[in-house]
Fold:
Amino acid sequence: MRRAPRGPAWAHRLFVGPSVLTLLVLGVYPLVFILFAAFTESSLGKPFQEWVGTETFQKVLADADAVSSLGRTLVYSLGVSVASLALGVVAALALHGAVRSGSLVRTLLLLPLITPPVIVGTLWKLIYNPGGGLLATVLGFFGVPAQTIAPLSSTTWALPAVAVADVWEWTPLIALLVFTAILSQDPQTLEAARLDGAHGWRLFRHITLPAIAGVVAAAFFIRLVLAFKVFDLIFMMTSGGPGQSTTTTSYLIYQAALREFDLGKAAVITLLLAVLVTLVTIPIALIARRLQANHE
Structure:
């Protein structure tokens, strides 16, 4: 059998070139820059001044605030991701049950997603305001003094308060992804399960959940990555305070680079965060891929 003639090599390079260039500009170059900054004495205005090896790594790892921010970011990210996933799945099931009002509800679910994070942070900061905010007003009806309701001023409640805003913003994304997966189920399989007596929790546990498990795991992966990157809400609502109670790693990178002008320190913290994110997300990505393959 005669093989079809292949196109000229220049045409292949022409089509592949933009993708390779985009990868180099958006991926490789920033990584190389961060690596060089991490191992050199680098300021915001004068990077790569002097080679210092692992000295900056040792200083960062010896900094209690930096190490604490990594742990705080991990706990925060896992917490908001699990909460968003649970609420998103419940919302998707409720949305599927109310199919007649589905289009309206889906439109309403998009509102938090299309709202800029800066606006979300401002909105929730006003909600938590003890001087007439929504939370203080509602609790005031039950006789709770407004002066005692200031979660963003509490080292204990500031981070959970930010987490509530984060969950509110991104839960609709999970709900819409899961809802789409539910709609893609085989209706004949569902009907057969109902005829066999599977309803409610049993139907979800044995039929629906295995069918959408891959999408749920993928949605959790996406949500976790977004949670690790949280910065806008922290910046708008607490500025990392009170104290260091809401200083996540992303906010610490901002402080090191744009407040202290220490580009080397910011680069090291960025690399440590990248390692943490990789270690946490790779198992989840593998699980999502395996579940999706089993479903197919």
User: Anything to note?
Assistant: The two ends are 34 Å apart (CA to CA). The domain at 57-295 is CATH 1.10.3720.10 (MetI-like fold). The chain has a mean pLDDT of 86.
